[in-house]
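Email to the structure team, subject: Sugar ABC transporter permease model.

Hi all, the expression group asked for a predicted structure before they design truncation constructs. Nothing fancy, just the tokens so they can compare against earlier work. One-line instruction: predict Sugar ABC transporter permease, return tokens.
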Amino acid sequence: MSTSSSLTAPSAGRRPRTDTALGLAFILPAAIGLIAFYIWPLLRGLYLSVTEYNLLTPEVFTGTANYERMFRDAIFWNAVKVTVQYVVINIGIQTILALAIAVLMQRLTQSTLVRSIVLTPYLVSNVVVAMLWLWILDNTLGITNELIEALTGESVNFLSSTLAIPTIALINVWRHVGYTALLIFAGLQAIPGTVYEAGKVDGASEWTMFWRITVPLLRPILALVLIMTMIGSFQVFDTVSVTTQGGPVNATRVLQFYIYDMAFGRFQFGYASAMAVGLLVVLALITALQYRLTRAGQTDLD
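Reply from the structure team: attached below.
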């Protein structure tokens, strides 16, 4: 008895083995990336926002001067208006289409091939997508205008001052709607089939079950989708840069493009950092408000 006890009991004075060192080793690469590419740039941007800095000379502390300039800048407020217009169009259309596609996949087919096809546009880079649609919608040589001109005798300038933002929003809807639909589809998979069976027993129609069962039970997923698309929409840049360069005039000068232009076009890094901090604060407030209003942390499945 004493012999078996001595074999299993830990030796005196030795600490029990833990996986702390192994866990830290796995976390270390991600932690280095987080600090190098997120935390340090954030802290650096916060500091530069209260300075005047042009990359060639040392920073000069200016206090709140950049923020005061931001509130007086008419182009900044126009960029905010243009960005909000883009966000409303992009999120509204993308969410509705993604929900419809997800429900159709759930009800009609759950084929992996169909899911792959739906996701294909998302796998193409934003720059390539923008160049592709720039060619398709070209005012003189684009295939879309060739068809429109054959039917009506006139061409349409899709990147004019009035149509540019809706066009850019629809281009990004085309690219991202498949990914958003798959997120919603994953949420639909988590809804028990017994809930729908109970609805059919009660005589509920498909439309009634969609509004009374599907949408309420999808609330956490829809909240996640709205938060992600909201943040991504406010950060739109590459599509604008490739297609319109912020024009005509300032019709498509979204906030992210204006920040880029100030920083790398005019070397006003202090003012660009102040606008970036302002965008960060706005996105944080919107995210917190969305999370609270949609009760994203709660589910009706319990």
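The mean pLDDT is 88. The chain has one domain: 74-268+276-294. Ping us if the truncation boundaries need rechecking.
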